[in-house]
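Hey,
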Amino acid sequence: MRNCVVDDSHDAARRLFVKKACDVYECPTCGCLMADVEFDHHQYEANTYYSMIHDTREEIEKEWGVRWRYILNKIIERRRSPSLLDVGAGNGYFIALAVGEFALRAKGIEISEREIQFAKDVLGIQLINENITQHVMQYDVVTCFNVIEHVVNPKLFLSALVQRVNPGGMLVITTPNPACIHVRVKGLRRWNMIDPPHHINLFTRKSLTALIQSNNLEELHYGTLSTYINFVRSIDSRSMLLKRLFFHFLRILNLGADHLLILGKPSGPRGVADAEASC
């Protein structure tokens, strides 16, 4: 038995099964899935890490372009020209598009030295080698894509993200969705996102809502999104028509591989207090 990482007042988590020699637990109150494993930095320095397996801009665009432009358009619908920080910037392609196509004042921070070198060599993007607790500036928009599932303490991590957002600004998060089409078809045990020590905690919609409320954030948008469905990749056209169709079809049904949350930080007294605390 163990406490829920979302809220330790929840009922004690129950052990579901073992995967990769790690116990996997589920919170009966919010549904959060938790692997009994510690953070392992070494995996993020491997040349085979998923964000670095495509080594040309064209291949990276095919894999990630639709997803990143969809999110960037969602951001500028609400803020025309925001300053932006991407936390856990990976191969840097989101920042490359944010700066090059959307003319945003955007920076990215990343803890993997290998990914920082990859972004510089392949995309000409210079990322900052820092974690969120080391970075002290604030931004109109902070983005964090598929990172929170890798941290041991998501409450502290989310709080650190919020401190980097200007009062009245936005926080944009993606993280794997346990209600996605893959789980519906394969079942939870065979879902490849339950992958310790790579993924430590996985969040249901209910558990994300609890995290949001604990940080006094307003939900501005919720949806789901995907990158590529594997069987589609092998038969798609050069224009990636099938990818786009499946992307929007799964998004409409909320069956996409990842949650997408756009959250607002208060501009009132609590937001001001947060800003002063981070100076």
